[in-house]
Amino acid sequence: MNRREFLQDATVLGATLGLAPGVSASARSVASKSSATPGTRLKVGVIGCGNVSGSYIPDMLSSPYIEIVSACDIIVERAQQRAQQFNIPNVYPHVDAMLAGAKFDLLVNLTSMPSHYPVNKKGLEAKVNVWTEKPMALSVRQGKELLALAKKQGVGFWPAPTVVTSPQFRFMAETIASGKLGSITAAHGTYGHSGPTWSEWFFQKGGGCLFDLGVYNVATLSGLLGPVKEVVGMTRIVTPTREINGKTIQVTADDNTMLIMDHGKGVLSHVQCGFVYPGDDLPAEIRKMSSVDLVGTKGTMHLLGYDWGPVGVGVTTESTPLEVTCTDPGPYKWQYGASYIAECLATGKKSLITAEHGFHFLEVMLACHESQRTGRRIKVESTFAWPIFGG
Q: Rounded to an integer, what distance in angstroms lies between the CA atom of residue 139 and that of residue 19?
């Protein structure tokens, strides 16, 4: 089942970093600030009970480190449906009510993109650890504020996506570090489909294909090749109106985007994404072709399948033909970020996902939009601890 089908099935069922700067690099220190202790279940509050929650909640319930105690949605009927479906004891109509209600250790923010920043801010202000779907915020100022707030409150803050935790990402990072491919010079990432059909906000200000789809490739390529120094971007609206839930809406966010990134030392990469592709509607054998390609002076490497759901890695060098390897995804899933972070909090395992990396790829995406508006190259100021493996 592909991601789009999984999310659509969730509609029938139900009818977002290590730690912030200045916080200990070990997740154990954050766990010590919650009511949980290593080896126990963390109490979790879920806000946003739409499509994505239908994928997240079953994954969280399969985790030995999580007890979901609260469900929250401004459309309270959706929270009630999820609570009944998954036996969640408390239901709230607003984040303020949830934060004032039953105590929990980790806020899981699955709301719409325009709501991520205000909900994340409220959670951090309440001194609760926060896992958020991507992006963490919609501006550089907001992102900086959230990182500073997490530091001030002494809590953890982590944004999706989870791509750096896949076995395929690790294999690619270690292959690059080994020198087997020589010096990496260029890379390409792509992700597209015909567009979400269940919510208007994907196509309006604060949404768009780069924030929804391209973000996976930006996180992957920056994680593999290092922080981005400079950006050039072009965005377009190809389909000016959409039919969503029987209603015609005007499209005001990008549905066709091309992003070029300079990682320094001659390394260039680009990401193309859109809501104007066949994408997930293509046959499975086509979707399993490479979506991320890297070129080195001695060989090439190709991630098979999308980086949110990889199925293997292909490697070719000067002396060896194409070899497909690393086909086992292990526990990796695009929707297991909250479960992954709960495990880190409960056991003290260091998270590969960091707030700094999340802020960095947010700034890169915002720079793409700024480049489109201004026609200029845009410098990226933020950075993150890299390499993720072997550093």
A: 20
